[in-house]
Amino acid sequence: MLTSLTLQSSLRSVLIHIAAVLLLVLSFDFPSRKTPQQMPQMNIVEAVAVDSAQVEKELQRLQELDTAKAQEELAKQQKLEQQVRELEKKSTQAETKRKEEEKRLVDLEKKKLQEQKARETEQKKLADLKKQQEELERKRKQDEDQARKAEAEKQRKEEEEAARQIQLAEQQAEQQGQDQALLQGITANIYRSVVSNYNVSGLAPGLECVLIVRTVPGGEVVSVSISQSSGNEIFDRRAINAVQKASPLPLPEDPATFERLGLRQFRLPFRPQ
Amino acid sequence: MTMRSLLILLLALYIGPLFAADELEIIIDRGVENTLPIAIVPFNWSGAPEMPPVEFALTIGNDLQRSGRFAVMEEADLPQRPVQFQEVNFRDWRLLGMENIVLGALKALPDGTFEVEFRLIDVYRGAQIAGFRIPATAKQIRRTAHRISDIIFERLTGIRGAFDTRIAYVTVRNNDDGSKRYQMQIADADGFNSQVLMESSEPLMSPAWSPDGRQLAYVSFESRNSSIFIQDIITGERTRVAGFSGINSAPAWSPDGTRLAMTLSREGDPEIYIMHLATRNLERLTHDRGIDTEPAWSPDGQKIAFTSDRGGNPQIYEMSTNGGRTERLTFVGVYNARPRYSPDGNSMSLVHGQDNTYRIGILDFRTSDITLLTGARLDESPSFAPNGSMIMYATTGRQGSELAAVSADGSVHQRLALQVGEVREPAWGPFPPEMP
Amino acid sequence: MKTRLFLIVLLTVLLGACSSTGGSKQQPSASVDDRSGAGDNGDVNTYGAGEGSGAGMSELDDPNSPLSTRIIYFEYDSSDIQERYRDVVEAHANYLVNNPNVVVALEGHADERGSREYNLALGERRALAVKRQMTLLGAAASQVRTVSYGEERPVESGHDDYSWGQNRRVELVY
């Protein structure tokens, strides 16, 4: 704080000196100078008015100022020196620090190197491991491929077998399909024939009986027996009469077809809604 | 497993059962509503040179035909006329689709009585369903024919036959001097064997059978006003049970026979009363300013249906016999009257009037629908057969009122051939006592 | 029968039996023949042939007098007395008022349509409607007896509107 004050005062004295000199120079050199028109007259008047006492006073003031300035300079110098000392001190400290830092950096570098080395080792290890794994994988794949091939072979054989079976089944199914269609038609015809002869007029609701019907090729009903009675004589009798009246039933004449379709005997549950 | 092998399996599963151990099964879940074909071979007559007193085959055939449930083969179409079971050529009958045949014989015995035997035969089984030998006096011989009809009817339909029952009705004859002759008659259900129970120059009305069939209640105007009488059918003994001022009419027996519901207007307007016959005590059932009449007991004896115009026009109402709420039963049309419960209590016959026609209708309690059974203009007085299979009623024909019968499903109509003159108000009697 | 009763009334009136003593109880022969067994003939109620009174002589004689109208007709299922019969009912009521010993029988009838028992009730309702009117006009209730025959005694035997119209009636029988 003190230093700054000193500096300020010395700077001010210098400026004042300069101003004073300028003022003097201007005061005397005025007419030779081209002056702008606007130059106020007052300065001239004042210049004219300056007397020697005033100058003396001014000089004295300036001298005083110089003394102050010198003191200020000294203080400044001292301060600078102080600053330098401090800076030097700081510099020393910084140097120490720098050296420490350098050492640290070196250490770091060293450590880095070590780490790098360790990493490299690790990587190498990993690479080895990977290699090992790959090798294993490869081996496994090889095994798998072999197994797959075996499986495929087996499957191929199975499929061949299956194809044979399908062919067989298809042949069978074709026969069966035809038979099934035939049987469906026969079943529908038997149903129609029996229903149209089944008189449900006045029958008690909720009853059911099951008849076993035996037939011969051509549909002649050989026998009708009660497999399960409704318990109601009239109900059972109406069912039997329905089958009897429907005879001959619409069944194939061909004995082979008749037998294959299993039409020799069938069940007729009577459960009118 | 591949799709294909799965397919094979499914295929195998699908086709398998059809050809496996299980035999073919066809479920018969419906049939047709048909009359039952029956042939009645004329009964063999033996024992006397004169003609048999009753044409058995004809009488039985008419009974069965009238019921609406049978199709009786014309005599001319019979392929043979066997008398004995052994003589039956089943093949011939089967070819004609004939399911049942009746064989029989009537024999006059030296003592003047008869012996009737008959067999009901199942043609397709080649077996006898029923066979009886029935002794009969000359007087009973016609009823015997009806009894046979009853047996056949029951064995083939499962419903008790009601041919051996009687009906009561009113006849009106115009005398030469312009006056009228009213008769209360009873006859066999087919209209034969009529007997006059009571005769009057004043109107007779509303015959009602006691549940045991021994008595008949009716309304007579012989005292220049309506009175209710109960008459013993066998002895003819009769008693006036209600002869109050005003109307005394519409007698109806309780199912237990101890009470007689009736309409009396002795307190101003026609109301329903119950008379306890043992004490003649009267119990008033309705309390309404309008007309309340034509009481009918429900088969369980718990309710009484009646006609009332309390709602502005005649409709049928029902109330408990021990009081309680009165419920209106009919809502269709502006004229529903004369209720009679069916024997099973599931429906009710009535007279339904619409656009100047009055027809017999059936009110089904389960649906509340009224089905009209008849189609003439002036049909009245429906009366259920005790088995509920038929309804007898009076219809206005060319000769005035005559009796007709309709099967309860409305499918078969038949007019009863009775003597000339008006015949009205049929009342179908109860089942006779079981045969000993 | 009715003609006979009418003649008796007419005769009685013509004879001018003033304040007659004791009506000639006329027994309508309701012959009851019970064939099937015993049976009483019922205690047959009879309606008197009317106790003559000379007062009504001229009125009955006059065919234009409302008193000569002895039948009141009704609409279907109705017991309302139609306007055109008001005078008739009033004349008869006045006659009864003037002849307190005279008794009239009102016979209610219905046409054949519908049920017989309901028609019996309807016939009674018609007879009672006429009786009510007469008693309102001053006749004593004891002077008016009612009976219903329902549809049992038609005057026309046809099955048409004309016959039905003729049969829906109340007959006044003195």
Describe the structure.
- The complex is a heterotrimer of chains A (273), B (436) and C (174).
- The longest helix of chain A has 146 residues, at 52-197.
- Chain A is 74% helix and 8% strand.
- Chain A starts with a helix and ends with a strand.
- In chain A, helix 3 crosses helix 4.
- Among the domains of chain A are: 2-30 and 41-106; 198-270, Fusion Protein Consisting Of Minor Coat Protein, Glycine Rich Linker, Tola, And A His Tag, Chain: A, Domain 2 (2-Layer Sandwich).
- With 273 residues, chain A is mainly alpha-helical.
- By secondary structure, chain B is mainly β.
- Chain B is 12% helix and 43% strand.
- Chain B has four helices and 31 strands.
- In chain B, strands 2, 3, 4, 5, 6 and 7 form a six-stranded mixed beta sheet that branches.
- The longest helix of chain B has 17 residues, at 3-19.
- The radius of gyration of chain B is 27 Å and the shape is globular.
- Chain B starts with a helix and ends in an 8-residue tail after the last strand.
- The relative contact order of chain B is 0.09.
- Mean pLDDT of chain C is 74; it is low at 1-30 and 34-58.
- Chain C is 34% helix and 13% strand.
- Chain C has a domain at 64-173: OmpA-like domain (60s Ribosomal Protein L30, Chain: A), CATH 3.30.1330.60.
- Chain C is of the alpha+beta class and 174 residues long.
- Chain C is built from five helices and five strands, in the order H-E-H-E-H-E-H-E-H-E.
- In chain C, strand 3, helix 4 and strand 4 form a beta-alpha-beta unit.
- Chain C starts with a helix and ends with a strand.
- Chains in contact: A-B, B-C.
- At the B-C interface, strand 10, strand 13 and strand 23 of B face strand 1, helix 4 and strand 4 of C.
- Strand 3 of chain A pairs parallel with strand 1 of chain B.
